[in-house]
Amino acid sequence: MCVNMPKTIKEERLRWVLPIYNKEVKLKDIVKVCPYGKRTLERWLAKFKQYGEAGLEPRSTRPKT
Hints:
Blueprint: H1 9-21, H2 27-31, H3 38-51
Helix pairs in contact: 1-3
């Protein structure tokens, strides 16, 4: 069993976004090994820049009505 497995969706998203945000690695390089698409990572990065960690919390896509 791997010790560093993310426990929540937010942790999983942080795992991919933080290295890009901290300029440790470029987005185009992460896309090669990441199971998520480039556009998804761009969205997560924008939410992280705007709202911080709270922006990476999953949101319901269920209709409001």
